[in-house]
Write a structure and sequence with these properties.
There is one protein chain. It contains five helices and two strands; from the N terminus they run ααββααα. The longest helix has 29 residues. Strands 1-2 form a two-stranded antiparallel sheet. Helix 3 packs across helix 4.
């Protein structure tokens, strides 16, 4: 969606959008036609609005939450890659990895 559609859907003005982009909370795709926003950007924008309006967070608070969200997404991607790599291993290797994970879980429970 273009910038105008994005702002309309979130009911924000240009100044607010510029702050969000300057803060690095949103990174739109830049094309010959201007900035383009994905559905994920819309979800992030709604989260930012919720953090500010509903929860009363200030800019440093929103910055921290958005950084944590980005870290979480990065970790999920890494975990997905690791899971895929384990699935490509021989069954005996997979079983050994699962056994080690089970052993670690039992150690934590002590």
């Amino acid at each position: 969606m273009n910038e105008s559609e994005f702002r309309l859907r979130l009911e924000i003005d240009v100044t607010v959008l510029e702050v969000w982009i300057d803060q690095g909370w949103l990174i739109p795709e830049t094309t010959n036609e201007g900035r383009r926003f994905r559905d994920a950007d819309l979800a992030r924008g709604q989260l930012i609005l919720d953090l500010i309006d509903a929860m009363g967070l200030n800019e440093p608070g929103v910055d921290l939450v958005m950084d944590l969200v980005d870290q979480l997404h990065g970790l999920r991607s890494t975990l997905r890659d690791l899971t895929d790599a384990v699935r490509r291993q021989n069954l005996d290797v997979q079983q050994h990895i699962l056994s080690e994970l089970d052993h670690l879980e039992h150690q934590k429970g002590r």
